[in-house]
Specification:
Number of strands: 6
Shape: flat
Radius of gyration: 15 Å
Number of helices: 2
């Protein structure tokens, strides 16, 4: 919870969504802030069915943040946490690729 308030106070505009606040701004500003404040860098990305792009930024200490960027360029920090780990991808047959 502290991290949400720190991000909001430092850079982003809070937008009411249900009971929680989602932190939004330009992608460049969000990525820059996460690099400076938490040493997180883009590690994974993908395209969602609705045309949005998600990115996972991770630090060497294991903190992570997921940001989602809309086609219009607006980005929001949707989730964050700690203890990020990568794992081998398993095929349908169960073997690691």
């Amino acid at each position: 919870m502290f991290r949400v308030f720190a991000l909001s106070a430092a850079l982003f505009v809070p937008v009411a969504a249900a009971a929680d606040s989602i932190l939004c701004g330009s992608r460049g500003d969000i990525v820059h802030f996460l690099q400076e404040a938490y040493a997180e860098t883009p590690t994974a990305t993908g395209r969602m069915a609705d045309g949005k792009t998600f990115e996972i930024l991770v630090s060497k200490k294991g903190s992570w943040t997921m940001i989602v960027t809309e086609p219009n360029g607006r980005s929001c920090a949707e989730a964050s946490g700690r203890d990020f780990r990568t794992a081998p991808i398993r095929s349908a047959g169960g073997s690691a690729t």
